[in-house]
């Protein structure tokens, strides 16, 4: 069972708050991850101790909203910046608890930023406004074919990193200077969290992938969206397959404990 982080979004003619995650995360969980997707409502920190023991992995999703700057002592967002404090208040403690337990974690886009903030890092809010940086944000005309899934720039991959190893294990050739990715974000890592190790960079130096140093299990984050093209892109699929392998191992490891608890009850 893989927990999928949800956002709070307004739906319908009355703008009723709903807890939601994109179908792409559900499909990739059922597909190459090979797990049952469990949508986690943005219900706050109280959710964490009850839900965490039931999960075999945590998938942190992308979102249009940005992590609130109060969580990393940043300046206020520019007017009109979408925020989701209910999600922040749920995912940040959930990440810290998952990391402490060694639960497999895969963090994507906003989730990648949450992983950094949860472990003590900070964020740049609008990378496109910073000197010497490229525009990483969502293209304005999203109606053009492939604009969300298309590759926007290449990233440089650390040759000894987790991504390079899992791609090599999948039999995929890695050109360290030219792995193409999509790009749909405004925020990015500013100060890297002490326990995270950067292992991919955009041409302007923006950190694009991280791993948890000395992690007892799988813990990886990417700034791009491999869930958009895993059916066509072998590297994207391999990320989810590696996560799925870790999830299956975690599930197998906790089944004896569950059986013992049932017998004791």
Would you write up a description of this structure?
By secondary structure, the protein is an alpha/beta fold. It has a single domain, classed as 3-Layer(aba) Sandwich (Rossmann fold), CATH 3.40.50.880. The chain is about 30% helix and about 20% strand. It has six helices and 13 strands. The protein has helices at about 25-35, 50, 85-100, 110-120, 160-170, 235-265; strands spanning about 1-5, 5-10, 15-20, 35-40, 55-60, 105-110, 125, 155, 180, 190, 195-200, 205-210, 220. The strands form three sheets. A nine-stranded mixed sheet has the order 4-1-5-6-13-12-11-8-9, sandwiched between helices. Strands 2-3 form a two-stranded antiparallel ribbon. Strands 7-10 form a two-stranded antiparallel ribbon. A hairpin with a 4-residue loop joins β2 (about 5-10) and β3. α1 (about 25-35) packs across α6 and α3 (about 85-100) packs across α4. The longest helix has about 30 residues, at about 235-265. The radius of gyration is 18 Å and the shape is globular. The model has no long low-confidence stretch (mean pLDDT about 90).
């Amino acid at each position: 069972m893989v927990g999928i982080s949800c956002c709070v979004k307004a739906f319908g003619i009355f703008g009723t708050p709903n807890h939601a995650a994109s179908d792409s995360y559900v499909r990739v969980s059922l597909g190459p991850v090979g797990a049952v997707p469990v949508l986690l409502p943005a219900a706050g920190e109280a959710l964490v101790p009850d839900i965490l023991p039931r999960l075999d992995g945590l998938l942190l999703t992308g979102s249009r909203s940005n992590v609130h700057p109060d969580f990393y002592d940043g300046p206020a967002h520019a007017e009109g910046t979408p925020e989701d404090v209910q999600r922040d208040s749920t995912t940040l403690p959930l990440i810290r608890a998952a990391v402490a337990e060694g639960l497999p974690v895969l963090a994507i886009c906003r989730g990648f930023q949450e992983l950094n903030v949860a472990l003590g890092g900070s964020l740049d809010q609008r990378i496109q406004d910073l000197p010497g940086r490229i525009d990483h944000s969502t293209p304005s005309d999203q109606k053009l074919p492939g604009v969300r899934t298309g590759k926007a720039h290449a990233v440089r991959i650390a040759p000894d990193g987790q991504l390079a190893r899992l791609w090599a294990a999948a039999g995929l050739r890695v050109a360290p200077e030219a792995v193409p990715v999509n790009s749909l974000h405004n925020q990015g890592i500013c100060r890297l969290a002490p326990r995270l190790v950067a292992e991919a960079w955009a041409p302007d130096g923006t950190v694009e992938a991280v791993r948890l140093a000395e992690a007892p299990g799988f813990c990886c984050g990417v700034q791009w969206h491999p869930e958009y093209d895993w059916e066509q892109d072998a590297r994207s699929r391999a990320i989810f397959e590696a996560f799925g392998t870790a999830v299956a191992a975690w599930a197998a490891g906790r089944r004896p404990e569950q059986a013992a608890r049932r017998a004791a009850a």
